[in-house]
Structures are given as C-alpha cells and as structure tokens.
Amino acid sequence: MSSGEGKFSQVPEDDQSFQEAWPLFVDFLKGKDSRITQARQIVFERVFARHDHFRADDLAAELASGENHVSRGTVYRTLDLMTEAGFVQKIRDDDVHAHYEHIYGHGRHDHLICEKTGEFIEFSSPVISDELDRICREHGFTERFHRIVVFGAREDKKK
Amino acid sequence: MSSGEGKFSQVPEDDQSFQEAWPLFVDFLKGKDSRITQARQIVFERVFARHDHFRADDLAAELASGENHVSRGTVYRTLDLMTEAGFVQKIRDDDVHAHYEHIYGHGRHDHLICEKTGEFIEFSSPVISDELDRICREHGFTERFHRIVVFGAREDKKK
DNA sequence: ATTACTGCAAAGCATTTGCAAATGC
DNA sequence: GCATTTGCAAATGCTTTGCAGTAAT
C-alpha cells in the first residue's frame, strides 16, 4: 500500500519496541499462569514488525503459510491475549474484518481513514480528550477507552 | 448529506419522523428507478419505531417472524438503501453484529457505550466537531462522516 | 407485460471452537 | 509427567447472493 514518506521508517522503532515489550508480555503471561510458547512469540514479533494497522485475517493468512507456521486459530487467540494485555488495540469499523495495530510505544491515537486509498492517518488531540472527559463526567460515565474514526478522503495535492 | 434544511421539528417523535421521512425515502427510491414496495415500507416504519440503536439481525429476526413478514435478505437490502439515502447510520464496532440507528430528525451524534448494561448514551459536542474540522484541515482531509465511541461503564448512581 | 423485488435457502467469510497431538514447565 | 497450547477442520453466525416466483409500474 503506501510506502513513500514513512515518517517512522528511519527509526528502528518497531524492533526496539519489540525488545522492550516482549518481556512485558512474558510477565503478563506468567501472571496468568499461561505459557510462553513459540507460536506466541512469533505472533508477537510479527505484530511489532507491522507498521500501523493490519487486518487480523491478513496476519493469520500470512502466518499460516510462512516458514514459521502459526495456525489461524492461534493467531486469533494470541491477538486476544495481546489486546487483553494492552499491546494492541482493535480498530474495527465499517469493515467486517478486524483491524489491529500495536500501541506500545506509540501512545493512543485515532485515525482519519482515506476511502480512496485506504490510508490511515494518525492524529491525537488533547482538546478532544479533555472534552470527552468532560462529557463522561457529565454523564457519570467512566471511560475505559474510546475510538474516533473519521472517514473521508485526502485531498489531491494541487494539480 | 445533512438533513432537515430549516425544518427543525420540535417534536422528534418517532411516528412524526416517519411521517416526514417516508415521502423523502419515496423520492429517493423514485430517483433511483426503484420501486416503492410493501416490504420496504414495513422495514422503514419499523426502523423509525425503534428508539435509538438496534441490531440489523435483531430487526431481521423480528420481521422474519411477525405478521408483516419481511425476509432477512430484504431487511438487509432495505437497510442498505436507507443508509445510502442517509436515514440510518451504521454504528458497528467491537461487536460482530451490525448496529444501526435512524438519524432523521435526531442529527448526528456519538455514543458512550456501557459495557455493563449494553446501554448506549448519546452525546454530541460542537467542541469536538470543531476540533475534528481543524485536524482534517491540517491534514488536507475532507471528512465524509466520523464516529466516536467511548467504551466504559456508567457509574452506579445511588443505592 | 415488463422488470424489479421478494423469499428462501444456500453460499460466503471472518472468527471461534472441539479435540487429539504436541509442547512448555 | 501433567496441563496448557496448538493445529486442523468443522462449526458459528451474521450477512450476502442466486434463482424462481411475485408484485409494482
């Protein structure tokens, strides 16, 4: 898909994130009396190797037929664990397919989704966060997390 | 895609909304060389009779076995038409099931979703809209529509 | 009379699950 | 050596679709 001006491309951030995050996931699993398995590590690593968002079934397909086989079921199961542990967030919307992205080291953010190119543009806004806080308070509501998705199109650069 | 030019009804009663909206849907269908059928009217009416949001499959199940039979396929097809015409909006999120709600006479709004009760609390915020506008502009992005969902829980009031 | 629409049931398809075999601890 | 996981594949469950009959124009 888009490959051009990757603003993160010069930083080996993903790899570093992985190095930092994996031990945390290990702890998480231990805390649940769950096991540190090869399949889980493969999935975890693959998720961190991906940039931005990805489709669950896409990842599953990729891993189901690579050299590091991980079955579809296991990919979905591991993605659930990673969500529970807070390493990925689900961003499923108008699409039937579940999308995920890893958030460790990124911080929460939301997206503008270009319907022409499928591109995901990240943004985050304290103004909106504050306002949502206010709204929640007003309704006696405690937020666990929120999701904002703006559908539309990126304007063409001046022709 | 905004609705209700100038005619801000003070009475957002569902029945009245239906009375106002149905002719507009008729026009929409005529404009597409589509037919005004009994099934479509039943679905349309049922949607307006519902308060707030509902699940597509729920509506389909209801109509598939009532006195006014409308088959599942037709319900889904009609819901698509209504979405295209702007009478309902899809609010699908963490759930596999598609949710809809009619927006005619309500105006766009977003939701706090209580994970304990499944309750949908509506809100709308000019502050957020303005901020989103600003963000879109900043990214050279044209919004078609957006969706904000806040997951969490409503605090117990008393007791 | 046309031709779109409906109903039904079968097909799609992402995701989940049951169970025997494999693997972590 | 046991319990948890994995890998299949079969099952789910919402949604879509093909087709023949039905209804709208």
The quaternary organization reads as homodimer
Overall mean pLDDT of chain A: 77
Give the full name of the CATH homologous superfamily of the largest domain in chain A.
Answer: Winged helix-like DNA-binding domain superfamily/Winged helix DNA-binding domain
The amount of beta strand of chain A, in percent, is: 15-25%
Question: How far do the termini of chain A sit from each other?
Answer: 22 Å
Order of helices and strands of chain A: HHEHHEEEEHE
Shape of chain A: globular
Into how many domains do the coordinates of chain A divide? Answer: 2
**Residue runs with pLDDT of under 50 for 5 or more positions of chain A:** 1-12
Q: Give the class of chain A from helix and strand content and strand pairing.
A: alpha+beta
Top-tier CATH class of the largest domain in chain A: Mainly Alpha
Number of DSSP strands of chain A?
Answer: 6
Tally the helices of chain A.
5
In the CATH hierarchy, what is the architecture of the largest domain in chain A at level 2?
Orthogonal Bundle
Instruction: Provide the spatial order of strands within the biggest beta sheet of chain A.
Output: 1-3-2
C-alpha Rg of chain A (nearest Å): 17 Å
Most extensive interface, chain pair and sizes = A-B, 34 and 34 residues
Determine the CATH topology of the largest domain in chain A: Arc Repressor Mutant, subunit A
